[in-house]
Amino acid sequence: MTAVMIISGVMLVLAALVTTQRLLAGPGSLDRLIAMDTLIGTAICGLSVWATYTGDTTIVPAIVALALVGFIGSVSVARFRVSDDS
């Protein structure tokens, strides 16, 4: 079980590094928005792996808060980024 947690942690760190590269080098604002949303999802997964590894459930409100911030941020940026020419 410990090996699975270590492997998943390493894979999440690698995913965060690749996503950070896309966040910094993204040519457009929508690319950066998707990269930020992916980075928040990776952080949620990392916190979930840590909560599973330690058996500590006090991290769950932080996971829910990150999910809400990611959702509301993505929806609000997408709302004001897309034009209403219909």
Automatic annotation (TrEMBL):
It is found in: Cell membrane. Pfam families: MrpF_PhaF. The chain crosses the membrane at residues 6-24, 33-53, 59-80. The keyword Membrane applies. GO terms for molecular function: sodium:proton antiporter activity. It comes from the Bacteria. GO terms for cellular component: plasma membrane. Its main location: membrane. The keyword Membrane applies. It is a multi-pass membrane protein. Keywords: Cell membrane, Membrane, Transmembrane, Transmembrane helix, Transport. PANTHER family: NA(+)/H(+) ANTIPORTER SUBUNIT F1, NA(+)_H(+) ANTIPORTER SUBUNIT F. NCBIfam families: PRK07948.1 (NF005930). Belongs to the CPA3 antiporters (TC 2.A.63) subunit F family. This is Cation:proton antiporter.
